[in-house]
Amino acid sequence: MTALRIAFFGLPLAACLLLQDGHDLVAAVLPPVEGPGRRRLRARLAPTSPLVDLLSGDPAPDLEALLARVRPDLIVSWFWTRRFTAGQLGQARLGGIGAHPSLLPRHRGPNPYFAAIDAGDRVTGVTIHRLTERYDEGAILAQESLLVGESDSWQLARRLDRPSLRQLRATVARMARGEPLVETPQDEAAATWAPDPQREPSGTAGEPGTTARPGALLRVDWTWSTERILRRIRALAPVPGLALELSGERFFVLAAEPAEDYPRALRPGEGAVFGTPPDVVLRTGDGAVRVLLAQLASPGESPSDATEAFDDGAALVCGEAASGGAGSPETSPDETGAIVTGQELAARVARR
User: Fold this and answer.
1) Which domain holds residue 45?
2) Quick one: which of 250, 211, 244, 209 has its CA closest to 229?
3) How far apart are the first and last CA of the chain?
4) Over 80: is that where the pLDDT of 325 sits?
């Protein structure tokens, strides 16, 4: 195999693995987000290869000029979220390839984890694709699927890392060997958009072109089915979580499950402390959910920059805690921002 001269953009773990595979990284530009491998990459990268780390405050370079100077065979992107221009891509003899954590063309965009879970997809996966001037629209070079299961967004993201790296390295290896690649154009009719629920005022994930008020994807409609609400909770977990308020206690739901029993007098959107031992149960359109894990909100603010979710009645659970059946758990953290179990949350609500 002939080693390729690679200009790398993205999280350092993939860069370290490409070096391990014997390729020559002639430049590496790291994004302003945390990720393992930074120290290892610094130690292994050739002194003549520029390393730009935007997290450490390095100034953003003129990428086209940088690429023209290092003359790469290939541009490789792994979790690099900035758009490449035609001029930048044209500096590499073989163009550029990137990895996307969905089965393109489904769930193009910044948060395919949220979109896959929220849409109820049974299967998702990773795609290696050609880089173009438009996000996630290049020809498909390789894909690998896996079952979504009961993962939340963070768990799904971690599960997709390994197949993403595997397929990226395999594609680079094929290119290094000079093997012809099958490049499959994406079917635009099948394309969906995966918005960032914290930033985009989109409607239902997976439905391009829908619009709604800002923060719509951070909320639930309590007339939805239990299964649909649990999908939204998993899609939002662990950050930012589903912002709720019950009897003046503000919190983010991080995990929940169907409630086997609940006060039948509750209406959708109402909640109560119920059962022995006590739980927080929230009425849905066809049943109820039981909170398993929550994060307490700080006074006057919310963790994960989701304060606005508390400012809209659609995000609040109505009703007071039901009287009776509320015992005191062994631990009941008083500090705000703490992660608490559903029963610890129930005790806090009952004391209000």
Assistant:
1) 5-190
2) 244
3) 68
4) no
Residue with tokens 């606005």: 308
Backbone angles phi, psi at 58, to 5 degrees: -60, 140
CATH no. for residue 61? Answer: 3.40.50.170
Same domain, yes or no: 54 and 158:
yes
- More confident: 20 or 308: 20
Of the candidates 208, 72, 77, the residue with the CA atom closest to the CA atom of residue 138 = 77
234 CB contacts (<8 Å, ≥6 apart)? Answer: 117, 150, 151, 152, 153, 255
**Strand partners of residue 74:** 6
Q: Are 287 and 169 members of one domain?
A: no
Same domain, 183 and 331: no
Residue 305: per-residue pLDDT? 39
- Preceding peptide of 277 cis, ω within 30°: yes
User: Do 183 and 35 have their domain in common?
Assistant: yes
pLDDT score for 215: 82
Angle, helix 12-20 to helix 153-176, in steps of 10 degrees: 30
65 in a domain, yes or no?
A: yes
Domain annotation covers residue 196: no
Residue 200 has pLDDT above 90, yes or no: no
Residue-wise pLDDT for 99-118, tens only, equals 999 999 999 999 999 999 99
Indicate whether 137 and 229 sit together in one domain. Answer: no
Q: Choose the weakest-confidence range: 152-166, 234-248, 252-266, 326-340.
A: 326-340
pTM of the model: 0.87
For residue 203, being part of any structural domain is answered with no
